[in-house]
Amino acid sequence: MQKQVEFQEAIKTKYPEQVVIAIAKDKKDKANPVTLGWTMIASGTPPMMAIAVAKKHYSIETIRHSKCFTISFPSSEMADAALFFGSRSGRDSDKLAEFKKCKTSPAKAIDSLLLTDATANFECTLESETEAGDHIIFVGKIIASHTNTEPKKRLYTVGSGHKLGSVS
Amino acid sequence: MQKQVEFQEAIKTKYPEQVVIAIAKDKKDKANPVTLGWTMIASGTPPMMAIAVAKKHYSIETIRHSKCFTISFPSSEMADAALFFGSRSGRDSDKLAEFKKCKTSPAKAIDSLLLTDATANFECTLESETEAGDHIIFVGKIIASHTNTEPKKRLYTVGSGHKLGSVS
Predict the structure, then answer these.
(1) How far is B40 from chain A (nearest CA, A)?
(2) What is the predicted pLDDT for the residue at B24?
(3) Nearest C-alpha in A relative to B13
(4) What angle do CA A154, B33, B7 make, to 5 degrees?
(5) Do the chains contact at A43 and B149, CB–CB below 8 Å?
(6) A20 contact residues in B (CB cutoff 8 A)
(7) How far apart (Å, rounded) are the C-alpha atoms in residues B155 and A79?
């Protein structure tokens, strides 16, 4: 049976929620990673993905500037990187320089980076942006895809309070 | 280490993927449920959610007609309903009349239905639509939320081939 409650109560049943790390370069050529939970596939042919980014985040500027971005699926062993990239702003810091453990390599088809230990990386060109409340939805067309050569589990937010882990 | 592969290969690492059932009424007042895996929260304040619906699906017409829809989080015991609603078209059939096991009740704030056994139901008014390849992204503003009075696990697509189940 259903009972009416506040949104914040009902949305607790959402978890586990997938986590992605989106990366775009700013005008100074600094690659800025941000951890996002609000993401989905948006098209099958051609493949596209959507991410919702808070309007106040520096990533808005970086994606608009470079008109492309990587969507990386962090592996379960990357929880500390996901927490770090999700809790700092790249406006006044270089998150990848500070968090040296997170290995990267250049993307192949766009001017961005891939995360070496992710389960997968998707190189996207910016297709559209749509305002949605306090976020901007960016849709990216995927023009190159990569997987890890080793099998890894994907990282999820497994419960409220940003608790991260894998699921089975 | 990353290796470049086809999108269809890399996206296999996405699963488990959350499943929702979106419901909107058509011009004959028939409530049409559709099962979707491509969905995300889009805004915190006000709360909004986005769903990506294939352009060929009858749901496109029903959402455009009624300008509102329910997003329901099916519980793990609703796998058969999710498969049924996801594999039939409502263009020439009444899915809820045919699948009698799926109990519903009227929504409170919009002209739609709630699914009684879902973990949660969100009543949305249509905020925007954006074309994305072979899908349309609908963003809905959530104006009423509901949870199940009993604790239930949410339904996920746990692997390729549309295998459904719960995760932990």
Answers:
(1) 5
(2) 98
(3) A119
(4) 35
(5) no
(6) none
(7) 24
pTM check: above 0.90? yes
Phi, psi of A111 (to 5 degrees): -90, 80
3-class secondary structure for chain B? CEEEECHHHHHHHHCCEECEEEEEECCCCCEEEEEECCEEEEECCCCEEEEEEECCCHHHHHHHHHCEEEEEECEHHHHHHHHHHHHCCCCCCCHHHHCCCCCEEECCCCCCEEECCCCEEEEEEEEEEEEECCEEEEEEEEEEEEEECCCCCECEEEECCCEEECCC
A137 reaches B (C-beta below 8 A): yes
Which pLDDT belongs to residue A77? 95
Query: Using CA atoms, how far apart are residues B47 and A45, in angstroms rounded to an integer?
Result: 29
From chain A, pick out residues whose CB is under 8 angstroms from the CB of B133: 42-48, 141
Residues in chain B: 168
Predicted confidence (pLDDT) per residue in B76-128, tens digit: 999 999 999 999 999 999 999 999 999 999 999 999 999 999 999 999 999 99
| Number of neighbouring beta carbons within 10 Å of residue A61 | 15
H or E element, residue A66: helix A58-66
Nearest C-alpha in B relative to A7: B145
**A59: which 2 tokens?**
């990533």
The rounded distance, in Å, linking the Cα atoms of A70 and B44 is 24
Please tell me which of the candidates A16, A108, A154 has its beta carbon nearest to residue B13.
A154
User: Which residues on chain A are in Cβ contact (under 8 Å) with B160?
Assistant: none
pLDDT (tens digit per residue) in B15-55:
999 999 999 999 999 999 999 999 999 999 999 999 999 99
- pLDDT score for B161: 73
Whether the per-residue pLDDT at A128 is higher than 90: the answer is yes
